[in-house]
Amino acid sequence: MKLATSDGLALEAEWAAPARAEAVVVLCHPHPQYGGTMRSIVTSALFDALPARGYACLRFNFRGVENSEGEHAEGRHEPLDIVAALDVASAQAPSLPLVLQGWSFGADMALTIADARVAAWVGVAPPLRFRSAADYEIVGRDARPKLLVLAAHDEFRAPADVNAEVAGWTNTRVEVVPGASHFFVGRTARVVDVVADFVSEVRAP
Is-above-0.90 flag for pTM? Predict the structure, then answer.
């Protein structure tokens, strides 16, 4: 599957869905310059597990990653890639609620997208450093639900620091995964459970 960005790039993507989906989750991967791709551990764990729980998933590679066209833009243009993913996800399942999820760099990008089609956001270990505080405040003050899944022993930003930054956000839940590092090795099952539970609340009547 290919995504088409508004600035003319074709991005690599994959779609997985159960026979009867109840929601759609768009997955945004971690930092490309540190090896992040749509096949990174947390993104893959969610992509593999969520369809079995009734949720369709779209994962994609940001510009310049593997078979996606373009070059890494240090977070300046990657939001265009997410909008392209939302275009395809909403076209595939126009009647279903759409949850936008990202991990690390991908979370930082996702948490700047105040698109009307998004029913809720999930940020896994967001450093909240790749865009300005003003960019995050747009989503932070939005009334739609948000979930932040933090690693208890995150090497890049401590949960207490993230909690302090999002203290003024609206309708935002924070879950800390005990024993987890930023990469959630050995803790991905817990991330899947927390995210799946949140999506089940979003799709509930």
Answer: yes
- Domain ranges, residue 114: 2-203
In terms of Cβ atoms closer than 10 Å to its own Cβ (0-12, 13-18, 19+), residue 28 is buried
- Give the CATH number, domain containing residue 94: 3.40.50.1820
Q: What is the pLDDT of residue 205?
A: 54
DSSP label at residue 30 = -
Please calculate the CA angle 67-70-102 and round it to the nearest 5 degrees.
70
Half-sphere exposure of 157 (CA within 13 A, CB side): 17
pLDDT means over runs of 10, the chain (205 residues): 97 97 97 94 98 98 98 95 98 96 98 98 96 93 98 97 96 98 97 98 77
- Kindly give the residue spans of alpha helices, DSSP state H, lying in the chain: 41-49, 78-92, 105-110, 133-140, 159-165, 188-203
Q: What is the pLDDT of residue 203?
A: 78
| ∠ CA 42-22-57, rounded to 5° | 30
pLDDT at 169: 97
Q: How far apart are CA 61 and CA 35, in angstroms?
A: 12
Closest CA to 2 of 105, 98, 87, 114: 87
Please report where in the chains the tokens 């990174």 appear, as a residue: 40
Q: How far is CA 57 from the centre of its chain?
A: 11
For CA atoms 178, 182, 186, 188, the dihedral sign is positive
- The per-residue pLDDT for 133 is 86
Total of domains in the chain: 1
